[in-house]
Design a protein that fits this description.
Layout (H helix, E strand, L loop, with lengths): L1 H7 L11 H44 L12 H21 L7 H17 L2 H7 L4 H26 L6
Helix pairs in contact: 1-2, 2-3, 2-4, 2-6, 3-4, 3-6, 4-6, 5-6
Length: 165
């Protein structure tokens, strides 16, 4: 249970107050930067998959026998969702040989959009959240991350004139 708690709370970040989900999203940023710098887009993508699988396991362990299917201290789901929101930025930097830090407006957009979709829980995000199980805890943030990633790509297209021709 100790390992599950370390993973689920992202080494205790989930115990920070207020807004543990926002803290989880914030801590995801430097870790995403590190993964990108060490291995580019592909290492971040592998990190998303590994964190999702470990997070699903940890969440199941932490919520077994509990009335609360999504305790606020579980923030590994925010890390996964935030990393998904950052994937288009990582890919753009990696594919074009640009330092990922040069794309800082995309980082801001990814953070704000992910938090917006994670808190608001529109459509499929809310559906996943209502599942009431460990997979739902992870999936609502995965879907929020996908929505944020789409938003990041749209904003990048607008900013770079691709969508305004």
């Amino acid at each position: 249970m100790m390992l599950a708690r370390m993973i689920g709370t992202v080494l205790g970040v989930g115990y920070l107050r207020p807004a543990p989900g926002t803290w989880g999203s914030l801590v995801a940023l430097p870790w995403a930067l590190l993964l990108h710098v060490l291995g580019g887009f592909w290492l971040l993508a592998i990190g998303v998959l590994a964190a999702f699988l470990k997070g699903w396991w940890a969440t199941a362990q932490m919520t077994t026998g509990s009335e609360d299917h999504d305790p606020s201290e579980i923030v590994i789901d925010e890390v996964v969702g935030q990393w998904i929101a950052l994937l288009p930025i990582s890919y753009g930097a990696w594919a074009n040989g640009v330092p990922i830090t040069a794309l800082w407006p995309g980082w801001v957009a990814a953070f704000v959009l992910f938090r917006l979709f994670d808190i608001w829980k529109p459509w499929l995000v809310g559906w996943a959240d209502r599942r009431g199980d460990a997979l739902g805890v992870m999936l609502d943030d995965v879907i929020a991350g996908v929505f944020a990633a789409i938003g990041v790509m749209i904003l990048a297209g607008i900013a770079h004139g691709v969508l305004m021709q």
